[in-house]
Amino acid sequence: MTESAQKMPDVREISRILPHRYPFLLVDRILEFEPGRRIVGLKNVTINEPFFAGHFPGAPVMPGVLIVEAMAQTAGVLALYSEPGRERLLVYLLGIDRARFRRPVTPGDQLRMELTVLRRKATVCKMRGEAFVDGALVAEAEMLSSFVERV
After folding, report:
1. What does the buried/exposed string (b/e) look like for 18-44 if buried means 16 or more CB atoms within 10 Å of the residue's CB?
2. Domains within the chain, CATH numbers bracketed
3. Would you give the distance in Å from CA 83 to the centre of its chain?
4. Pair 27, 10: CB distance under 8 Å
5. ∠ CA 17-52-130 to the nearest 5 degrees?
6. Closest by CA position to 112, among listed 96, 79, 136
7. How far apart are CA 70 and CA 87, in angstroms?
8. 20, 38, 55, 126: which is the annotated catalytic residue?
9. Do residues 85 and 147 make contact, with C-beta atoms less than 8 angstroms apart?
10. Torsion-angle region of residue 58: left (phi > 0), alpha (psi -120 to 50) or beta?
11. Bridging pattern class, strands 89-101 and 38-44
């Protein structure tokens, strides 16, 4: 299959790849996908997200740690989608470097997450993630993760 004809994982496929479930599944859609290289995912941020009840009442802001988690989950889709035997694997986040938050993410925003593989060796992968709202960079980080067998 050519790169341009690569099937995009839909929300059902994302749920087969990632073990996360509501309210912690933070990837709604995959927009672009280059196996082993790059992925673009989307998170629709809505007012009924459970974290908005306490962060912050009257001035809802998506927690930065959840923006990074959404990027990490998108990275997990990239890492596992083409991996043989993926149903037996999990991707564990090992480290976060160079995380920066540029502006708040609020209800009604669409969080576009772009992840690029920097390095991959056997069971360890390092990716750079950037999150955008309306084309403006809102967060960025480098993430190190590892494949582990599900128990």
Report:
1. beeeeeebbbbebeebeeeeebbbebe
2. 3-149 (3.10.129.10)
3. 17
4. no
5. 50
6. 136
7. 20
8. 55
9. no
10. left
11. unpaired
Q: Write the pLDDT tens digit of every residue in 66-92.
A: 999 999 999 999 999 878 888 889 999
Q: Which of 43, 41, 59, 57 is nearest to 106 (CA)?
A: 59
Q: Which residues pair with 30 in a beta bridge?
A: 41
The verdict on whether 20 is a catalytic residue reads no
> Using CA atoms, how far apart are residues 131 and 12, in angstroms rounded to an integer?
23
Running DSSP on this structure, what letter comes out for residue 52? G
- DSSP state, 20? -
Q: Are 89 and 105 in contact, with CB atoms under 8 Å apart?
A: no
| Separation CA 151–CA 148 (nearest Å) | 9
pLDDT averaged over 10-residue windows placed end to end, the chain, 151 residues: 62 90 94 95 96 96 98 95 85 96 98 97 95 98 94 82
Pick from 120, 49, 59: which is nearest to 91 by CA? 120
Report the C-alpha gap between 142 and 55 in whole angstroms: 25
Q: What are the tokens at 43? A: 């998170």
Residue 125, both tokens: 């992968």
